[in-house]
Design goal:
The complex is a heterodimer of chains A (328) and B (255). With 328 residues, chain A is mostly helical. Chain A has a single domain, classed as ABC transporter involved in vitamin B12 uptake, BtuC. Chain A has 14 helices and no strands. Chain A is globular. In chain B, strand 9 (207-212) and strand 10 (215-221) form a beta hairpin. Chain B is built from nine helices and twelve strands. In chain B, the strands form three sheets. A six-stranded mixed sheet of chain B has the order 6-7-8-3-9-10, sandwiched between helices. In chain B, helix 4 packs across helix 5 (141-154). The termini of chain B are far apart. Chain B has helices spanning 41-48, 71-77, 93-98, 113-125, 141-154, 171-186, 198-204, 222-225, 228-235; strands at 2-12, 15-26, 30-34, 56-61, 64-65, 78-81, 159-162, 190-195, 207-212, 215-221, 239-243, 249-253. Chain B is of the alpha/beta class and 255 residues long. Helices cover 33% and strands 29% of the residues of chain B.
C-alpha cells in the first residue's frame, strides 16, 4: 500500500497545466535530494512547479486524507459504531464554523486552527453528551441524529457569518473554502498545521491496540486493564485535533473519514491495530488521487469536497442498503 | 490465590444494593451466586472486579487490598467473562481472544508471537481451535461464550468472574459450557459465576450464596445452601430439591 502511495505521488507530480514528464520529475527530485545547486532554464521552471506548487499540494492531500481517515476509524472504534465519521458526528461542521469565524476575523492560519479545534471539540462534545443522556435507547440512531442536528446548527451559524461577511472579499473565500479544496494551500500553511496533525496522529498510532480493545464494551475494556475514560477522552481529543487541523487548511472535505475505514476493514479486517495504519494509507492515496483528478478534470478546478461527496454518498447508501450484518 | 470480601457493601453512589457481604473464594472451586432478577449480582460482580468502588468493607486479592492494586494488576489476576454479546465490528475469534492478552502488554505495545501462541493454547483448551479464523459475531451463543472464556484463559488469570454464562443459550450449549467451567475449576482456576438456574448450580457448584433483599440469605456448601426451604424463600415460590437415585440432585417447582 505504501508503495502504491509513493507511485501515486510521482504520478500526481506529472499532472497539471505545465508539462512535466516522469523522468524530469525524478531528476528534479533527486537533484534536490542530493543538495545540487539551483537549476537553470527549463529545469528551474520544473523545480518551481514541483516544489512550489505540486509537491506541497501532494503533501497536503496525503496529510488531509490520512488524517480524515484516521479520525474516522478512531471515532468508529470509540463510539463502537461503523457508521460514524468526522462529518456525521458534526465535527467537520463544527470545525468549519470555527475556521470560518477565523476567516471572518481575518486571523492567521494558527488562529483559524485554534478556532477550528474548539468548534470541532464543541460539536463532538455535544453529540457525546446527547448519546450519554439517552442511555438505553437506540444509540446508533441517537448518534447519527445528534450529529445531523449539531451539523445543521453549525451550518446555520455558518450562514449567519456568511451574511455578515464582506461580500467582495471574505464571502467568495468562505464559499470556496466551504466546498473543500487544496488549491489555496501553501507551504507555510502546511508548516503551521502539520505539527498539530502529527500531534493527533502519533498517540492514536501508539495506542492503537488499546483503542481496539475499547471498541468492546466499557466494563470489558476496563476489566482488561484499560483506563477507559482517560483513553476515550484522549482518542476523541486526538481525532478532533486532526480533523480540525485538516479543516483549517483545506476546508470541509466530506466522506473520506467514513468511507476509507470501511474499505480498509474490507482489506485487512476490523482489528484496529491493522485497521488504523491501513486507513491512513488508503485515505492518503485516495485523496491524492481525487485531488489530482480535481485539478486535471477540467479547465476550472473542481472543488475537492464535491468530488469526495460524489464518490462517498453513493458508497454510504450502498452500506446502508447492505444492512448491519454486512458492515465489514 | 484467594479473593476475599469482608463486610462489603456495594451499590451506585448513595444507593446501597447489597450490604454485609463476606465471602472468600479460592482457586480451584466454583462459587455460585443465586438470586432473583435485580438482586444486585451484577453490581457485586463489578465491585469484585474492581470496576466499582465498594461503599463499605474491603476486597482483598491474595491478601492485598484491591484499592491498592492498579487496574492492570487486577486484570492480570481476575478476568471478566461477560454474557455472549455481538460487538459492533466483525472481529474474528482470534482477534477477540487476543484482546485477553491486553493486561500483559505495555502501554504502547501490541501482541507478539508469544501472545498468539497463548491464544491458540486457550482455544485448544476449550476445544474450539477450529474456530480461530471464524467471524465471532456469526457464531452461536454457546460458541461465543466459549470464545469469551478462552479470552479470559489467554490472560492467565487465576479467577474468572462469569456473568450468567448460560443465559440465553440453548439446552445443548448450556451443558457444553457448564462442562467446560467444571473442568477449568479442576485445572485450578477459581470461578465465580451468577446463574438463574438452580440446576446449573447443583450440577457444577462447590459452594453458593443466595442473595435477596439486599443481603446474603445464606452461603456455604451446596448441602447447606441448596435446600427446598431456602430456595423457596429465595424465589417466593415452592421449590423442591429432589435427589435422584444416582446421587445427583435437581430442582423442581413444588406442588
Amino acid at each position: 500500500m505504501a508503495v502504491a502511495l509513493f507511485l501515486l505521488v510521482l504520478y500526481s507530480l506529472t499532472v497539471g497545466a505545465y508539462p512535466v514528464t516522469l523522468p524530469q520529475a525524478l531528476v528534479s527530485l533527486l537533484d534536490r535530494f542530493r543538495g545540487a545547486g539551483p537549476a537553470a532554464g527549463n529545469a528551474a521552471a520544473i523545480d518551481t512547479v514541483l516544489f512550489g506548487i505540486r509537491l506541497p499540494r501532494a503533501v497536503a492531500a496525503i496529510a488531509v486524507g490520512g488524517c480524515l481517515a484516521a479520525a474516522g476509524a478512531s471515532y468508529q472504534a470509540i463510539f463502537r459504531n461503523p457508521l460514524v465519521s468526522p462529518d456525521i458526528l458534526g465535527v467537520s461542521a463544527g470545525a468549519g464554523l470555527g475556521a470560518i469565524l477565523g476567516i471572518f476575523l481575518s486571523l492567521p492560519v494558527g488562529g483559524i486552527q485554534v478556532l477550528a479545534f474548539l468548534g470541532g471539540l464543541a460539536a463532538v462534545g455535544l453529540v457525546a453528551a446527547v448519546v450519554a443522556s439517552s442511555r438505553g435507547r437506540e444509540s446508533i440512531l441517537t448518534l447519527i441524529l445528534g450529529g445531523v442536528v449539531i451539523g445543521s446548527l453549525a451550518g446555520a451559524c455558518t450562514s449567519l457569518v456568511k451574511v455578515l461577511a464582506d461580500p467582495y472579499d471574505q464571502l467568495p473565500a468562505i464559499t470556496f473554502w466551504l466546498l473543500g479544496s487544496l488549491a489555496p494551500v501553501t507551504g507555510s500553511d502546511l508548516i503551521a498545521v502539520l505539527p498539530f496533525a502529527a500531534l493527533g496522529m502519533v498517540p492514536l498510532l501508539a495506542l492503537r491496540w488499546r483503542i481496539g480493545v475499547l471498541s468492546l464494551d466499557d466494563d470489558e475494556a476496563s476489566a482488561l486493564g484499560i483506563p477507559v475514560r482517560r483513553t476515550r477522552l484522549l482518542v476523541i481529543g486526538c481525532a478532533t485535533l486532526m480533523t480540525s487541523s485538516v479543516v483549517a487548511i483545506a476546508g470541509v472535505i466530506g466522506w473520506v473519514g467514513l468511507v476509507m475505514p470501511h474499505i480498509a476493514r474490507m482489506l485487512v479486517g476490523p482489528a484496529f491495530s491493522r485497521l488504523l495504519p491501513a486507513s491512513v494509507l488508503l485515505g492518503a492515496a485516495y485523496l491524492l488521487l481525487v485531488d489530482t483528478l480535481a485539478r486535471s478534470l477540467s479547465e476550472n478546478e473542481v472543488p475537492l469536497g464535491i468530488l469526495t461527496a460524489v464518490v462517498g454518498a453513493p458508497f454510504f447508501l450502498w452500506l446502508l442498503a447492505r444492512g448491519r450484518r454486512g458492515w465489514v | 490465590m484467594s479473593l476475599v470480601a469482608e463486610g462489603l457493601a456495594v451499590g451506585h453512589g448513595e444507593r446501597t444494593v447489597v450490604a454485609g457481604i463476606s465471602i472468600a473464594i479460592a482457586t480451584g472451586e466454583v462459587f455460585c451466586l443465586l438470586g432473583p432478577n435485580g438482586c444486585g449480582k451484577t453490581t457485586l460482580f463489578r465491585t469484585l472486579l474492581g470496576l466499582l468502588p465498594p461503599l463499605a468493607g474491603t476486597v482483598n486479592l491474595d491478601g492485598t487490598p484491591m484499592s491498592a492494586l492498579s487496574r492492570r494488576a487486577i486484570a492480570r489476576r481476575i478476568a471478566y467473562v461477560p454474557q455472549a454479546h455481538s460487538p459492533a465490528f466483525p472481529f474474528t475469534v482470534s482477534d477477540v481472544v487476543l484482546m485477553g492478552r491486553t493486561p500483559h502488554l505495555g502501554l504502547f505495545s501490541r501482541p507478539g508471537r508469544e501472545d498468539r501462541r497463548r491464544v491458540d493454547a486457550a482455544l485448544s483448551r476449550l476445544g474450539i481451535a477450529g474456530l480461530a479464523e471464524a467471524d465471532y459475531s456469526r457464531l452461536s451463543g454457546g460458541q461465543r461464550q466459549l470464545v469469551l472464556i478462552a479470552r479470559a484463559l489467554a490472560g492467565d488469570a487465576g479467577f474468572l468472574v462469569m456473568d450468567e454464562p448460560t443465559a440465553s443459550l440453548d439446552y445443548g450449549n448450556q451443558s457444553l459450557v457448564l462442562k467446560q467451567i467444571r473442568s477449568l475449576a479442576g485445572q485450578g482456576i477459581g470461578i465465580l459465576l451468577s446463574s438463574h438456574d438452580p440446576d446449573h448450580v447443583l450440577a457444577i457448584g462447590d459452594r453458593a450464596a443466595l442473595i435477596r433483599d439486599g443481603a446474603i440469605l445464606r452461603q456455604g456448601s451446596l448441602d447447606q445452601v441448596m435446600d427446598s426451604t431456602l430456595l423457596s424463600r429465595l424465589y417466593d415460590m415452592a421449590v423442591e430439591v429432589v435427589s435422584l437415585p444416582d446421587g445427583r440432585r435437581v430442582c423442581l417447582p413444588g406442588r
